[in-house]
Amino acid sequence: MKKAISDIDPAWLEGRTAVVRADFNVPLDDGRVSDDHRLRASLPTLDLLTAAGARVVLLSHLGRPDGPSPELSLAPVATRLTELLGRPVQFIGELDAGKVAAAVAHLPAASIGLLENTRFLAGDAENDPALAASWADLGDIFVNDAFGVAHRAHASTAGLAEAMMARGGEAVAGLLMAKELLFLEDALLEPERPFTGILGGAKISGKIGVISALLGRVDRLLIGGAMANTFFMAMGLDTGSSLVEEDSLDLAKSLMEQGGERLVLPVDCVVTHELREGAEARTVERSEVAQDDKIVDIGPRTRAMFAEAIGGSKSILWNGPMGVFEIDPFAEGTIAIAWAVAAACDRGALGVIGGGDSGAAVERAGVADRVTHVSTGGGASIKLLAGAKMPGLDSLTEKG
Ligand code: ADP
Ligand code: MG
């Protein structure tokens, strides 16, 4: 169990400086933050620290710049955070370590300063120890609240944690990070049963680790999306012009063997000839897919079958949409699953959503507030569920 900022005595925080790594990798449009979910998700940690009287030095990456590039500056994030917090967030645009330290030294007590995009410095992605040490020197404690990059070992994540510990400070999880762990690990480790996993999305190759890790823990694993197509082909069914990963057929066969009856595939599907709004769509049995058909969603019988399994579950973990939900007529399966998960949560089930597109689908279905937890980390949640190494977490101080 990792130590969290809520385990630190607030009296200790007063007058000290916390270096906080957040995940402010948000979309920008015309110099403004166009989706502030990730900023809002960081507010509890910032409120806790400032209420305790700590100064906060915030770090984040944004996009994948090769060096300084003005269009990926974090300045608009400081503006939006100022609005959200109702207190000024001072933007520190310097990159030179000495100038950054001087600017931080001028921050008033209990105020917040945001440094420029960490990836403007090549040393971040290279996990340069000197860069990590220069950030650690800015404060007394490191708080990692960037769950979205917990699977990476960068100077601003794992490197900074190690550097802070090397100078005698602690490295702890922020409130968002702690919440992600509580739900994503709880759902995996000791779930109330029945435990149902739902997997979909475009590819199985990126999610092999999750499929086999989940098959070992769930009572049922419902598979939809393009992921199901590869299983269909492995079963010898015709998949027409659907998206299939032919390199993964053997893998699909072995997963079917490993899963036996626990692995549940769609029985019918929605097919179309064209991936566009307004295209004609038909429902067919999975054995009736024609040559120029593309499978784009699960069919109504599958929706009912999946919804029933979800309705009878005490724990549910969902990653990956059931169809091409970005296009309205192909979104019905995904929306039906979102509603089924929300209804199960209304009755007391634990429902956890991981994955970027799945999170967007739950928002779109209007049920984000009814499910127990929608993870803010796309790739990171998949990695965690698959049991992969998480340097951003592993580097934090152990509790107790
Ligand atoms: P997440 O981000 O939740 O992990 P993925 O990125 O794995 O999900 O998958 C999301 C994508 O999968 C969406 O863009 C969706 O259009 C696509 N997808 C789902 N079902 C199909 C399908 N049957 N054919 C083609 N693409 C699909
Ligand atoms: Mg995705």
Question: In what range is the share of β-strand residues?
Answer: 15-25%
Query: What radius of gyration results from the CA coordinates?
Result: 23 Å
CATH topology of the largest domain: Rossmann fold
Highest CATH level, the class of the largest domain:
Alpha Beta
Instruction: Give the low-confidence spans.
Output: none
CATH superfamily of the largest domain, by name, is: Phosphoglycerate kinase, N-terminal domain
Ligands present: adenosine-5'-diphosphate, magnesium ion
Query: What characterizes the major β-sheet?
Result: 6 strands, parallel
Strands side by side in the biggest sheet: 5-6-4-1-7-8
Overall CATH architecture of the largest domain: 3-Layer(aba) Sandwich
Count of helical stretches: 15
What secondary-structure arrangement, pairings included, does this model have?
Elements: H1 10-13, E1 17-21, E2 28-29, E3 32-33, H2 37-51, E4 55-59, H3 75-85, E5 89-92, H4 97-105, E6 112-115, H5 129-136, E7 141-144, H6 155-166, E8 170-173, H7 175-189, E9 195-199, H8 208-215, E10 220-223, H9 225-234, H10 249-259, E11 263-264, E12 268-272, E13 281-285, E14 294-298, H11 300-311, E15 315-319, H12 332-346, E16 350-354, H13 356-364, E17 373-374, H14 378-385, H15 391-394
Parallel strand pairs: 1-4, 1-7, 4-6, 5-6, 7-8, 9-10, 9-15, 10-11, 15-16, 16-17
Antiparallel strand pairs: 2-3, 12-13, 12-14
Residues 355-357, 378 line the site of magnesium ion.
Could you explain the architecture of this structure?
The chain has 400 residues and is an alpha/beta fold. The protein folds into two domains: 5-178, 3-Layer(aba) Sandwich (Rossmann fold); 191-385, Phosphoglycerate kinase, N-terminal domain (Rossmann fold). The chain is built from 15 helices and 17 strands. Strands 5-6-4-1-7-8 form a six-stranded parallel β-sheet, with helices on both faces. α8 (208-215) links the parallel β9 and β10. α2 (37-51) crosses α3. The longest helix has 15 residues, at 37-51. The model has no long low-confidence stretch (mean pLDDT 95). The structure holds adenosine-5'-diphosphate and magnesium ion (MG).
